[in-house]
Amino acid sequence: MMTITAHPTTTRPAYTPARAMKKIVILGATSGIALEVQRQLAHQGRELLLVARSPQRLAEIQADLAIRGARQILTYSADLASVQQHAGIFEFVQRAFADFDTVLLAYGSMHDQKDSETSVDVLLEELTVNFVSATAILTLFASDLEQRRTGCLAAITSVAGDRGRRSNYVYGSAKGALSLFLQGLRSRLHPAGVRVITIKPGPVRTPMTDHLANSARFGDPEQVARDIVRALERRSPDVLYTPKIWRYIMGAVQQIPENIFKRLSF
Ligand SMILES: NC(=O)c1ccc[n+]([C@@H]2O[C@H](COP(=O)([O-])OP(=O)(O)OC[C@H]3O[C@@H](n4cnc5c(N)ncnc54)[C@H](OP(=O)(O)O)[C@@H]3O)[C@@H](O)[C@H]2O)c1
Questions:
Q1: 3-state SS class at 220
Q2: What b/e string do you get for 112-126 counting C-beta neighbours within 10 Å, with b at 16 or more?
Q3: Is 53 in the pocket of ligand 1 (CB under 6 A)?
Q4: Distance 231 CA to ligand 1 centre (A)
């Protein structure tokens, strides 16, 4: 039998603006969306710890953000998709940036769907990068924030995770599973006062989508970053659609009956 326990809101420490975002860890600092987020956070004089694969790109980004006003910028080079490297990343964060209060997970990959249909290796890599490794590293940060009873975890999933489509269901299923994971994590961390934000962008102009038809008409990464920074500052909403219109588009898409949806070729 399932027992449902509601946690009274009085057990949750109230957030005050003074406790809000000061020290932010960005996982996937070279992503087109993360770059814009980091520029806006630097402009606000925040402290940043950036994790990404390329030490050279990290050094370039660090120099750029210093000019833009970031108070402190630490970098750590690692492959976030490799779960074996997570302990090293987390140990560095705890040592060099111990009282971090916000984590933004921004890395991800989108292979051509056809490649995942013909190669199980590509399929597994897509699931590992976008789901398995993401949940593994979020779990390390979640336990730390839960113990300290403070902070905010945010992760970029995608509107592609809201419904399985013929043209990108492998990427979509990884993102959908990550959204579900975040939903459960949010409930787990709620009694500790730790916020969990699920970020669902629609298509955005970044290196991930450069090669796609109509990419010039995709969302502006600067606007998406503004929405993300605002959500991190306010620690709400729980689920952010960005640009906002995608909340309504996906609401409508989810209403399409399955026997019609399966015939749609997009
Ligand atoms: N652009 C869109 O239309 C869109 C829409 C919805 C959701 N999203 C999501 O938003 C997030 C940011 O994407 P973006 O648009 O900013 O894409 P992007 O510019 O292509 O950035 C992708 C990031 O993920 C890292 N990455 C890719 N494959 C990796 C791997 N195998 N191992 C480790 N790191 C890897 C990249 O690192 P390197 O720089 O080292 O390659 C880079 O930091 C992703 O989670 C993406 O799925 C994007």
A1: coil
A2: ebeebeeeeebbebb
A3: yes
A4: 20
Q: For a substitution probing ligand 1, which of 110, 208, 240, 249 has the most ligand atoms within 8 Å of its CB?
A: 208
User: How many CA atoms, within 13 angstroms, populate the side-chain half-sphere of residue 174?
Assistant: 26
Average pLDDT value for the chain: 93
- In the chain, what are the domain boundaries? 19-261
Tokens of 85: 């490297």
- Condensed to tens digits (0 to 9), the pLDDT of residues 24-80 reads 999 999 999 999 999 999 999 999 999 999 999 999 999 999 999 999 999 999 999
Q: Which two tokens stand for residue 188?
A: 């787990």
Residue nearest to atom 22 of ligand 1 (CA): 31
How many CA atoms lie less than 13 Å away from 126 in the CB half-sphere? 23
Encoding tokens for residue 199?
């970020």
Give the mutation target among 31, 83, 104, 178 for probing the ligand 1 site: most ligand atoms within 8 A of CB: 31
- Rounded to an integer, what distance in angstroms lies between the CA atom of residue 135 and that of residue 113? 22
Q: What is the per-residue pLDDT across 70-125, written as a single tens digit (0 to 9) for each?
A: 999 999 999 999 999 999 999 999 999 999 999 999 999 999 999 999 999 999 99
Asked whether 199 lines ligand 1 (CB < 6 A), one says no
Tell me the C-alpha to C-alpha distance, in Å, between residue 129 and each of 110, 234, 237. Answer: 9, 28, 25
- Which pLDDT does position 252 carry in this prediction? 97
The whole-number average pLDDT for the span 15-25 is 70
Q: Whose CA is nearest to atom 25 of ligand 1?
A: 107
CATH fit for domain 19-261, picks 3.60.130.10, 2.40.37.10, 3.40.50.720, 2.60.40.1180 = 3.40.50.720
Q: Would you give the DSSP letter of residue 13?
A: P
Give pTM, 2 decimals: 0.94
